[in-house]
Amino acid sequence: MELDIIEEKDLIMGKANQEVFSQTLQDLAATDKDIIVVTSDSRGSGKLVPFGQKYPDQIVEIGIAEQNLVGVSAGLASAGKKTFAVSPACFLTARALEQIKNDVAYSDNPVKLVGISAGVSYGALGTTHHSLHDFAVLRAINNMIIVAPADNFETEQALRKAIEINKPIYLRFGKKPMPNLGESNQCFELGKGRVLESGEGIAIIAAGETVYPAWKAAKALEENYDVKASVVSMHTIKPLDTDLLEELATNGKPIITVEEHMVNGGLGEACASHLFQKGFKNPFQIIGIPDEYTVTGSQVEIFNHYGISPQGILKVAVELLKI
Q1: For 174-224, what is each residue's pLDDT tens digit?
Q2: If DSSP codes are grouped into helix, strand and coil, which group holds residue 260?
């Protein structure tokens, strides 16, 4: 069954979430001089060249020095600026982790940490450029909101919400053009999952760019096996929408989580931990990158290899449902 060629007549491909981030930030900065972008030689990869051209006094170039990037951003935020620290997710959440923990979270400086080219977006550049640890390390830090938008709508809304709140937040964006999902549910709230499809047969919970293959797998499950699945964009990894999670688990049906992250410490383990501690016993499977040396290839090739694809998700669903 070749699921990648399923017709999605009602879906329109949008832009990469990074592009939407840049355009929305430009729109906001037009009327807000307190918005400051700090980059680590990443205005090109972050699609921020137009921002710099329009607002040269509102962008600071640090160079390839991520620890300085976060330290400077924390200082600007402490002075009342609405600061966005933009850098590749793999470096931002590894090289600058101490500064994120101490200068941002512990000091309660409301920096908007923006991890671009996240997950395996860098593809063939390999493990050094993959950010498969960021959910795990940031979940372990108090006072940190973690958001991975699924589509252009969620990206714009997450950015606008981030501006409104006076708290540290990590926004995770990828490079691939994303379809506009969930036209019937255009509601967005930090800390609340977005239900794209409702069904009683199985629940598929995903985050970021894995929501699209999860949605496609659910459509194939219904078309080929007459099983209606719930599909949730759990865009906020922390704080987790535990009310929705328990609601999905109440019927005892299987639950699948999907993420562009190591299976250790991410969305899946957060969901499993909560449900287990609350006494739920649903069949449960985490789909993500296993604890091994990651294969090299494009994002699509890596997704397919590890089953983060419509085919892979469908296969797990069929096995859990025993159909």
Answers
A1: 999 999 887 666 889 999 999 999 999 999 999 999 999 999 999 999 999
A2: strand
| pLDDT at residue 10 in the model | 46
Enumerate residue ranges in the chain where pLDDT < 70. 1-12, 183-185
Structure tokens at 66: 């991520």
Torsion of CA 41, 47, 51, 56, to 10 degrees: 20
Which residue ranges form the domains of the chain, and what is each CATH number? Answer: 13-179 (3.40.50.970), 189-321 (3.40.50.920)
Helix H or strand E encompassing 204:
strand 202-206
Rounded Cα distance between 176 and 183, Å, is 20
pLDDT value of position 182: 74
Q: Are 93 and 71 in contact (CB under 8 A)?
A: no
Beta-bridged to residue 88, according to DSSP, are 116
Residue 201's closest CA among 282, 307, 311, 309?
Answer: 282
pTM: 0.94
In sequence order, the 6+-apart residues with CB closer than 8 A to the CB of 293 are 127
Instruction: Please tell me what DSSP assigns to residue 189.
Output: B
Backbone angles phi, psi at 189, to 5 degrees: -145, 130
Using CA atoms, how far apart are residues 7 and 210, in angstroms rounded to an integer? 18
User: Which whole-number Å values give the CA distances from 120 to 136, 190, 276, in the listed order?
Assistant: 16, 24, 29
User: Is the distance from CB of 5 to CB of 310 less than 8 angstroms?
Assistant: no
Alpha carbon distance 46, 43 (integer Å): 5
The token pair that represents 110 in the structure block? 């409301």
**Nearest to residue 181, comparing CAs of 6, 5, 13?**
13
Amino acid at the residue 109 = N
- What are the tokens at 108? 């309660």
